[in-house]
Specification:
Layout lengths: L1 H19 L8 E3 L1 E3 L3 E3 L4 E11 L25 E12 L3 H17 L2 E3 L12 E6 L4 H11 L6 E11 L2 H8 L14
Parallel strand pairs: 1-4
Antiparallel strand pairs: 2-3, 4-5, 5-8, 6-7, 7-8
Helix pairs in contact: 1-2
Length: about 190
């Protein structure tokens, strides 16, 4: 599901930038490449999108190990949903510094215009994702420095957005774990 969210933003941003530039910029938003062990390579003359953090949304977290939120209405127990927030960084990598700022401005305008993404407004959003919302993250100079050092790439004009929230719920697995399909499980212990 993470891949669906990121490719959704890539497609939407590319479309927006293509419209705003009169078709002069084709597929300018790219994913940064990561080469083992940890080298990050940025595509030239592009906005590079990079997932820099995944965090659990603890506000919606249930304290119970199991929750009775069965989707078909039947009473029973299922694993609670896993709600995640993503931190997406959009990094410019242009030879002409001013051109990078111009394109980064379009990214900022896009997320200012569209803060909430749902199925109604964006039918191309994966059906497993109910909605996504975005907010610009303000980092202190110290936090920015730590982020750039950890990425081991030169500091470039960029914007960091927090994307709320991806909800993981595996209904098929919950039914399999709690249903009769597994039968009796026997635990054998070896005696020494």
């Amino acid at each position: 599901m993470l891949d669906h969210a990121l490719t959704f933003f890539q497609e939407q941003l590319n479309t927006y930038i293509r419209i705003k530039t009169g078709g002069q910029r084709e597929d300018i938003v790219r994913f940064a490449e990561i080469q083992p062990p940890k080298e990050v390579t940025l595509t030239s003359n592009a906005i590079n999108m990079l997932l820099v953090n995944v965090e659990e949304e603890r506000i919606f977290r249930s304290g119970a190990a199991y929750a009775s939120n069965s989707p078909n209405g039947a009473s029973g127990f299922a694993n609670p949903n896993l709600c995640l927030n993503l931190h997406l960084m959009f990094i410019t990598n242009f030879k002409e510094y001013v051109e990078g700022l111009r394109v980064l401005s379009l990214v900022l305008k896009f997320f200012r215009s569209y803060r909430l993404f749902d199925q109604q407004k964006f039918p191309s959003l994966n059906p497993e994702i109910e909605q996504l919302s975005t907010e610009l993250v303000n980092l202190s100079f110290m936090e920015q420095g730590e982020l750039w050092r950890s990425l081991e790439i030169p500091c470039s004009p960029s914007a960091l957005y927090k994307v709320r929230m991806i909800v993981f719920q595996d209904e098929d697995m919950d039914a399999l774990e709690t249903g009769r399909e597994l039968g009796d499980v026997q635990i054998l212990t070896a005696q020494l």
